[in-house]
């Protein structure tokens, strides 16, 4: 039977394997063989993931066919809303949009659950197990859950009246971290929608190769050590940055050969400066005013001064080192600033995580109805650099 199953897995589609195992053993006696069959089919599927993602996009340095791989494998994303009573509501995605470096998944067919009653938001990747002879997922296939994130809603923060990160006349929007954003109705405080920004780096692996209880953990591939280079780990970076909403890109640019000399370290950070404020030819413009459209089954609106920040920082071996896809806000600057090249209100975008921090400065140019991006600073944690390169700065 072992040899027969191996031959089936090599030669037949998953649908044919399943039918063959059931026919040979019968429904009642086939449990273990069915488990082995599922395991083998999952392994075959995971092997296909690697082949589908082999080609690298020359601009982003990320897999060129992430969207096609997701569609070919039939991957989707599921939101589980857990109430404080432990009741769970399972919600399939309403839509997903792909961008050069990321994807945004939205859930907006929601019951109007009061936020104060919610305990946890959990997102899973759903990957079908069985595929037909054409290579596409079977419509009736069971799906394997892969944990992407789990966010506990701290009751004390909400009860103390946390201020929203963005709002319009209808909804309040809160940025929860790790790309997760939720909105509540101003009237009643019920859950209006949830969205998740997902960076493309190993997205398909994270959505297919984890389990329902644990996330997929990739193997770290460290660059080769160079004990001759006195600035090892401080140069040779490239970075691609985009500002977008959930449907369209406002601005994007790539920066090559970023570096930081030892004498220019800022505290425990290596400072990389893709756009210098005092060099006008570094500056660029967005294509329009930045805002975040939203929708539910019944309503839609626009929240101003809010967008999604996508960042990919590659090391000197062109390996993705720092990957970000997160909602951010444009905050008006409270400092008096004079700029001789642009006349308008100053804004900034700040982001911080364990890998480092990002600061962007923008000026709203009224006559062009665009933002001028006049400064971008990436501070990469020396701790992260030391772990990545095996250095000791």
Our count of domains comes out at 3
Number of strands: 22
Coarse morphology: globular
Question: Mean pLDDT, as a whole number?
Answer: 88
Using the CA coordinates, give the radius of gyration.
24 Å
Taking the alpha carbons of the first and last residues, their distance comes to: 58 Å
* Series of secondary-structure elements, N-terminal to C-terminal: HHHHEEEEEEHEEEEHEEEEEEEEEEEEH
Uncertain stretches: 1-12
DSSP strand content: 35-45%
Number of helices: 7
Q: Which structural class is indicated by helix and strand composition?
A: alpha+beta
The share of residues in helices is 10-25%
- Widest sheet: strand ordering: 3-4-10-9-8-7
State the major sheet: 6 strands, antiparallel
Task: Set down the secondary structure blueprint.
Blueprint (H helix, E strand, L loop, with lengths): L1 H10 L2 H12 L5 H22 L13 H8 L2 E8 L4 E5 L2 E4 L3 E6 L10 E11 L14 E10 L2 H5 L6 E2 L3 E7 L2 E6 L5 E9 L3 H6 L28 E8 L4 E10 L10 E7 L8 E2 L5 E5 L4 E5 L1 E9 L5 E10 L1 E2 L13 E8 L2 E10 L4 E12 H8 L4
Antiparallel strand pairs: 1-2, 1-5, 3-4, 4-10, 5-6, 7-8, 8-9, 9-10, 11-12, 11-17, 13-22, 14-22, 15-16, 17-18, 19-20, 20-21, 21-22
């Amino acid at each position: 039977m072992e040899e027969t199953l191996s031959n089936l897995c090599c030669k037949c589609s998953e649908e044919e394997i399943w039918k063959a195992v059931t026919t040979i053993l019968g429904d009642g006696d086939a449990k273990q063989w069915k488990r082995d069959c599922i395991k083998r089919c999952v392994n075959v599927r995971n092997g296909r993931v690697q082949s589908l993602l082999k080609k690298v996009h020359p601009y982003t340095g990320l897999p060129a066919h992430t969207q096609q791989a997701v569609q070919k494998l039939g991957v989707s994303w599921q939101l589980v809303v857990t109430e404080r009573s432990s009741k769970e509501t399972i919600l399939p995605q309403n839509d997903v949009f792909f961008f050069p470096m990321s994807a945004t998944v939205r859930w907006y067919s929601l019951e109007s659950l009061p936020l104060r009653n919610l305990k946890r938001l959990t997102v899973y990747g759903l990957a079908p197990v069985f595929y037909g002879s054409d290579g596409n997922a079977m419509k009736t296939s069971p799906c394997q859950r892969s944990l992407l994130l789990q966010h506990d809603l701290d009751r004390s923060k909400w009860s103390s009246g946390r201020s929203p990160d963005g709002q319009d006349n209808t909804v309040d929007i809160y940025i929860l971290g790790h790309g997760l954003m939720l909105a509540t109705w101003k009237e009643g405080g019920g859950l209006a929608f949830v969205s998740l920004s997902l960076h493309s780096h190993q997205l398909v692996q994270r959505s297919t190769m984890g389990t329902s209880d644990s996330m997929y953990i990739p193997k770290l591939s460290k660059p080769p050590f160079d004990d001759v280079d006195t600035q090892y780990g401080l140069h040779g970076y490239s970075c691609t940055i985009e500002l977008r909403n959930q449907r369209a890109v406002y601005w994007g640019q790539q920066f090559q050969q970023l570096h930081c000399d030892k004498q220019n370290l800022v505290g425990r950070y290596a400072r990389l400066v893709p756009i210098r404020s005092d060099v006008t030819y570094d500056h660029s413009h967005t294509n329009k005013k930045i805002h975040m459209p939203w929708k539910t089954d019944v309503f839609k609106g626009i929240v101003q001064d809010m967008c999604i920040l996508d960042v990919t920082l590659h090391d000197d071996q062109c390996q993705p080192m720092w990957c970000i896809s997160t909602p951010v806000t444009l905050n008006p600057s409270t400092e008096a600033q004079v700029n001789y090249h642009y006349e308008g209100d100053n804004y900034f975008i700040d982001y911080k995580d364990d890998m480092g921090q990002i600061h962007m400065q923008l000026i709203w140019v009224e006559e062009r109805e665009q933002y001028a991006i006049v400064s971008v600073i990436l501070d990469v944690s020396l701790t992260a650099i030391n772990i990545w390169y095996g250095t000791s700065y």
